[in-house]
Design goal:
This protein is α+β, with helices and mostly antiparallel strands. The chain contains 13 helices and 22 strands. The chain has a five-stranded parallel β-sheet with strand order 3-2-1-4-5. A five-stranded antiparallel β-sheet has the order 12-15-18-22-19. A four-stranded antiparallel β-sheet has the order 6-9-7-8, with helices on both faces. Helix 7 packs across helix 10. Bound molecules: adenosine monophosphate and glycine.
């Protein structure tokens, strides 16, 4: 099979690494990819904006692509999946109507309410001042901008006054035309991702991300500073329950509204004292969760994604390696506020069961330099969470550039 993968981050490098291991794959084109992906066997990176439907369809045609895998949300929200499907291609990635579950938090809440999915009590506002008045009455409350905000659209306010201020601030950002207020939930957070064919789904291992930039979950929010899987504080029965009470009803409600959800449905959950509740949905796989999930998955990814794209998925439990994977994000100086790029990277060669996935890297005059905030993810598999952590840490320390920083406590909360 000839595959096309859209995206350029650590998630895409991990997907590409897993895809080219499949005996079904003869070639993998990645647009635009990154230097880590370009070094994989059978992979080729093509400079192209993955959010532009016309050029993406053209590329898929010219390379006679059998399956397109969409990594990030931007092409999905822009309708690239729809354009490819209209042109006759099999696509792993929902249509724009399905991707709205990530693009609009108000829409996601509407779906959850209609589907009876457990989530925090909420109200939606179209005027910042009305939201601010309600926030003052509410007291401690979570304030969210409706639209995509790259992790900067949520404030967990500890008082009504702080929340009211957050309503005014969030109303100024591009995603802030609508403001949501919702109850503050408590409990450990986890990510559950399902590969879906529109009706049926299979669950990847539950994982835990670390969103704050500094150790001990302090500092500003980021896209994610590291993850581990499986998040084994969740029992197999609880995972099954999340499939039944969250993933299934959400897919059915989306389908009822005419969405074609053939792709990854990501539920960001909190395990509250009264059971798992959904904080957010994404219409794609998580980053950095995917990096560790690809190291855990003990079967060929290609038939799974192909069956999702074709609507022929068999609901079943996936084969996972017995052990743990830990991924530590290596970030550029100044990340997340103002990452400094252009620093020369010195990287060692990973050992067996270690992987160094690239994200914000580029090749300049034969040298590898930083080109984004999250630069790489240092991943390792181990038979215990302790062994996986130790190995990932050793790999993280062996990769250096000026100002690189990472959290040494990824996975420390795992039981
Ligand atoms: P979101 O983008 O909706 O996942 O929110 C980003 C982060 O804000 C989450 O990872 C949580 O840590 C926090 N958060 C969001 N919603 C709530 C909530 N209802 N209660 C407590 N914390 C929340
Ligand atoms: N790691 C969080 C996300 O992918 O949205």
């Amino acid at each position: 099979m000839k595959l096309l993968l859209l995206g350029s981050g650590g998630r895409e490098h991990a997907l590409a690494w897993k895809l080219v291991q499949s005996p079904l794959v003869t070639s993998l084109v990645v647009a635009p990819g990154n230097p880590g992906i370009a070094a994989l066997p059978r992979a080729e990176c093509v400079v192209l904006d993955p959010t532009k439907s016309g050029p993406v369809v053209e590329l898929a045609r010219s390379r006679a692509i059998d399956l397109v895998v969409v990594g990030p949300e931007a092409p999905l929200v822009a309708g690239v999946g729809d354009a490819l499907r209209s042109a006759g291609f099999d696509v792993f990635g929902p249509d724009a109507a399905g991707a709205r579950i990530e693009g609009s938090k108000a829409f996601a809440k509407e779906i959850m309410q209609a589907a009876g999915v457990p989530t925090a009590k909420f109200e939606v506002f179209t005027e910042a001042e009305a939201a601010a008045r309600r926030a003052l009455e509410w007291g401690p409350v979570v304030v969210k901008a409706d639209g995509l905000a790259a992790g900067k659209g949520v404030v967990v306010a500890t008082s009504g006054a702080e929340a009211a201020e957050a309503c005014r601030e969030l109303a100024k950002i591009p995603g802030g035309k609508q403001i949501l207020l919702e109850d503050v939930l408590t409990g450990p957070e986890l990510s559950v991702m399902a590969l879906c064919d529109g009706e049926r789904w299979v669950l990847l291992a539950p994982s835990q991300d670390h969103k704050r930039v500094f150790e001990g979950d302090t500092g500003p929010n980021t896209g994610g500073m590291g993850a581990y899987a499986p998040a084994n504080f969740l029992s197999a029965a609880q995972l099954e329950e999340i499939g039944r009470t969250v993933i299934g009803p959400t897919l059915r409600e989306l389908a009822r509204r005419g969405a074609n959800f053939k792709g990854a449905l990501y539920a960001g959950l909190m395990l509250t004292p009264s059971g798992p509740k959904v904080l957010e949905f994404n219409a794609r796989l998580g980053d950095p969760e995917t990096q560790v999930l690809m190291m855990q998955l003990d079967e060929d990814l290609v038939p799974l994604l192909r069956d999702c794209a074709r609507g022929t998925l068999q609901a079943r439990a996936l084969k996972q390696r017995a052990g743990f994977s830990v991924g530590i994000v290596l970030a550029a100086a100044g990340y997340p506020e103002s990452p400094r790029t252009g620093a020369e990277i010195s990287a060692s060669v990973p050992r067996d069961d270690q992987q160094l996935f690239h994200a914000g890297t580029k090749s300049v005059d034969g040298k590898l330099v930083t080109s984004g905030g999250r630069v790489m993810t240092a991943c390792a598999f181990g038979s215990t969470i302790g062994a996986a952590r130790e190995s990932a840490l050793a790999l993280a320390k062996s990769v250096t550039w000026e100002g690189r920083h990472f959290r040494a406590d990824i996975g420390a909360k795992a039981p």
